[in-house]
Task: inverse folding
């Protein structure tokens, strides 16, 4: 049986003053109904990889990929209209900061309802019920009140739960979570990730968790891709992080301080290490 | 506003208090701004090198007559008292008498201003109905030939002088093609036939049910209004484009695309809704500018509007008329500004 999502040799480049600059150079992976982590520092190309899967990048970005198949269908060959039926309904994405990723002049309820209404023709009453159910699922206790709020009236943690509700209400097969907690307080980060984990398990979905936080990815994923400068430098089982071979991964691990140690100076990473290997 | 049934009495009272406070502040700010406007016109009336007494009695009057008139005009009293009297007069609608027309200024304004309102309103309608969609399309297809074309049109609107466009428009569409009527608001033949109700000829003609007059008035209106419309269109399209470009790069627009929303809905619903707030200000200001700044077009088209009236008054040193017209235009600015503030609250949940 073929994997749910196949990505082969993804390349993304932007025009620069001296010719195109490649920011994603040949990323490939397969994804089943499992939890895949993509980890790397800022600018390593992990977010662009996520957005390329949904074909969201617009000019001047140039995307080339040898193979992009989802559930037996070729996403590359799809028209924009067909692609819209995949977006949200089959593959969905939670973005980084609810302060920017929610529409400031639409109520929370309307935004969640829209995600449902673009894909299904259902009576208004049922839409409302399903929105309320969904808000309840993401542990918002008084959905009736929250539905009428505007994004600036909710906290960051609640905003992100609204985002998750909005992205999961059409019951997609894959959720891409692009740094879903980096804009949140540490105290609510775990709540949001636990919620994502729980929903993924309940719906039997595939997850791509994009983060710069190795520990976090290791905790919530089955498999981890380590990206550096647009390339996947290492692929590991989440439990086997300590067995990492690649110098870049080792350097990343080294630079994480532990609570049970005293170090005067954290090692500085040699950013060139391992490029092109 | 969200009002759920679960609201308690104190909450409702609190909300009512907020509302009352908001209205109170609104009225106070408007009143203060208006007072400021009066202070400025009063001040202008005192510093211009025109002696209001001489303007009334002439420069060959005897000293006694001069003094008597000076006292009658209240010019011998302290400035503060004069200002208070001035405010009282203006509030009761007494703007003095125009030297040019010999009528009370307030009556003149009531005759001339509707002509300007009619032309400016037609102009702003053209500007908004064409300019906003043009700006949105230009932003949605930034860099395309359509975008370039709209930008060139906008540049023309900025840089071509109004009187030139008026003259060329008359030469081509009136003298050459005969598509529209010439200068003036209406043909002499029809002049004064409909009873003035609003002062807007087109509206009055509709009220009277006289379609021939309506057609003639529109035929006179269409060219000057299009020229004004073109100017406001240039500005409105340009601003709409830049607001839209800003919105289209926002993350929530990407969110909408991730949800599978169609591109049309992404543009008109997600990106356009938030900019209504800014557009209200831009359109309001454009309208105000058309109401006061269409002097050139009014002169070229012999349009009996406020711009024409004000220019004539200025050239004849008719201060009562000049100040009256200035107060009127200033008031229009204040009203439009306050209205756009109000609409802000309607359109932007964050400002409530």
Result:
């Amino acid at each position: 049986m073929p994997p749910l999502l196949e990505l082969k040799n993804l390349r993304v480049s932007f025009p620069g003053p001296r010719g195109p600059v490649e920011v994603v150079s040949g990323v490939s992976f397969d994804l089943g109904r499992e939890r895949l982590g993509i980890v790397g520092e800022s600018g390593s190309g992990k977010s662009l990889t996520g957005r390329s899967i949904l074909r969201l990048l617009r000019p001047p970005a140039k995307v080339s990929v040898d193979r992009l198949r989802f559930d037996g269908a070729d996403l590359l060959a799809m028209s924009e209209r067909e692609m819209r039926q995949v977006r949200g309904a089959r593959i969905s994405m939670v973005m980084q900061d609810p302060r920017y990723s929610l529409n400031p002049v639409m109520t929370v309820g309307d935004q969640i309802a829209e995600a449902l209404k673009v894909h299904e023709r259902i009576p208004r009453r049922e839409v409302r019920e399903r929105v309320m159910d969904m808000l309840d699922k993401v542990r918002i206790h008084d959905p009736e009140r929250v539905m009428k709020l505007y994004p600036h009236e909710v906290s960051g943690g609640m905003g992100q739960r609204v985002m998750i509700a909005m992205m999961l209400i059409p019951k997609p097969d894959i959720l891409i979570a692009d740094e879903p907690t980096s804009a949140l307080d540490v105290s609510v980060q775990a709540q949001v990730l636990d919620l994502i984990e729980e929903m993924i398990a309940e719906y039997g979905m595939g997850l791509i968790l994009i983060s710069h936080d190795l520990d976090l990815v290791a905790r919530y994923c089955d498999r981890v891709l380590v990206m550096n400068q647009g390339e996947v430098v290492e692929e590991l089982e989440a439990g086997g992080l300590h067995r990492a071979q690649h110098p870049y991964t080792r350097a990343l691990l080294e630079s994480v301080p532990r609570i049970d140690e005293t170090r005067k100076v954290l090692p500085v990473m040699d950013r060139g290490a391992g490029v092109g290997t | 506003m969200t009002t759920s049934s679960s609201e308690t009495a104190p909450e409702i009272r609190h909300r009512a208090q907020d509302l009352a406070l908001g209205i109170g502040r609104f009225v106070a700010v408007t009143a203060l701004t208006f007072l400021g406007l009066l202070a400025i016109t009063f001040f202008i009336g005192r510093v211009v090198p025109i002696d209001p007494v001489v303007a009334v009695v002439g420069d060959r009057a005897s000293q006694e007559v001069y003094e008597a008139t000076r006292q009658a005009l209240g010019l011998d009293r302290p400035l503060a008292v004069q200002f208070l009297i001035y405010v009282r007069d203006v509030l009761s609608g007494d703007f003095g008498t125009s030297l040019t027309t010999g009528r009370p200024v307030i009556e003149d304004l009531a005759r001339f201003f509707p002509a300007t309102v009619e032309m400016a309103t037609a102009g702003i309608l053209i500007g908004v109905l064409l300019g906003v969609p043009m700006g949105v399309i230009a932003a949605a297809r930034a860099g395309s030939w359509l975008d370039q074309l709209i930008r060139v049109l906008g540049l023309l609107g900025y840089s071509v002088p109004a009187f030139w466009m008026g003259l060329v428009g008359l030469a081509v569409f009136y003298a050459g093609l005969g598509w529209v009527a010439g200068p003036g608001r209406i043909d002499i033949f029809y002049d004064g036939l409909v009873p003035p109700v609003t002062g807007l000829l087109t509206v009055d003609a509709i009220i009277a049910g006289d379609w021939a007059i309506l057609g003639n008035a529109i035929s006179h209106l269409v060219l000057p209004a299009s020229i004004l419309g073109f100017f406001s269109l240039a500005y409105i399209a340009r601003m709409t484009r830049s607001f839209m470009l800003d919105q289209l790069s926002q993350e929530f627009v990407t969110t909408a695309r991730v949800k599978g929303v169609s591109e049309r809905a992404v543009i008109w619903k997600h990106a356009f809704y938030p900019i209504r707030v800014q557009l209200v200000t831009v359109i309001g200001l454009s309208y105000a500018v058309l109401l006061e700044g269409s002097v050139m077009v009014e002169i070229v088209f012999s349009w009996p509007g406020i711009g024409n009236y004000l220019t004539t008054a200025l050239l004849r040193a008719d201060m009562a008329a000049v100040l009256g017209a200035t107060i009127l235009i200033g008031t229009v600015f204040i009203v439009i500004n306050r209205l756009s503030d109000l609409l802000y609250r309607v359109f932007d949940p964050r400002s409530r």
Notes: Chain A has one domain: 33-50+79-254. Chain A touches chain B through 36 residues (CB under 8 Å). The radius of gyration of chain A is 19 Å. The longest helix of chain A spans residues 186-203.
